[in-house]
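Run log, item B.
One chain of 120 residues. Sequence copied directly from the ordering sheet:
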Amino acid sequence: MSSRKLVSIFCLHFLLVSPVSWGEGVGGGVSSPQKPGTTHNESDIDAEQREKMIKDMTKQANKQRQEDLKEDTVKLLELATELKQYVDKTNENVMSLEVMKKAEQIEKLAHSVREKMKAN
């Protein structure tokens, strides 16, 4: 998953969840009464739910990033194999345009894989 997708998911989550916690401060700081026999107030539960949602979203994003990396490395191997086949068909006097294009594709994909590996 790209960094942009992660940021989008985080922003969406922030927009959906945060107004609930902002609303608790409205009304002059008056908090709702706690139900007898409970150990957490609503804001603690909301914070725990938010934390769990963020943790789940992060876990899902990491899982998606890992799947993307696997797909990209398979494609990288295919491109490298194709490049070798093209190079084997050429000689020292002839360099095919296809060889150059394939090398560029490999370079771009390798850069993408490296960036995904850096993302955390």
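Observations after the first pass:
- The radius of gyration is 25 Å.
- Residues 11-32 have pLDDT under 50 and may be disordered.
Flagged for discussion on Thursday.
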